[in-house]
Design brief:
Strand content: 5-15%
Helix content: 40-55%
Radius of gyration: 13 Å
Oligomer: single chain
Order of helices and strands: EEHHHEEHH
Length: about 100
């Protein structure tokens, strides 16, 4: 689904202190929460929505770290990566990936 499979946007986990790619955060979160017909957004989609002012919609949304497998609320991952890094990542992975559900 991603145009550039090697694209990386590293996201820091405050629980284990390690960095992991946005894509791995997306897959790890989907593996736990995409059940019974529910689907999860990509993490980059959530970052974009927060940057556009929709913080309250996502602050309690749970994500999973692909390194330590711990669940945490989205607000624990803030602040967001820098806008230029987000834009460069989106240019590599494409809008179809950003908008996809897992």
């Amino acid at each position: 689904m991603r145009q550039d499979e090697n694209a990386e946007l590293l996201v820091y986990c405050p629980k284990c202190g390690l960095w992991a790619n946005e894509y791995n955060w997306t897959l790890e979160t989907a593996s736990k929460y995409s059940v019974n017909g529910k689907q999860t957004h990509t993490l980059i989609y959530i970052f974009i929505d927060i940057a556009q002012g929709n913080y309250q919609k996502w602050e309690n949304y749970k994500v999973l770290c692909p390194r330590c497998h711990e669940s945490m609320q989205m607000r624990k991952l803030l602040p967001l990566p820098q806008e230029d890094l987000i834009a460069a990542y989106i240019a590599k992975v494409g809008q179809a990936y950003v908008q996809s559900l897992y």
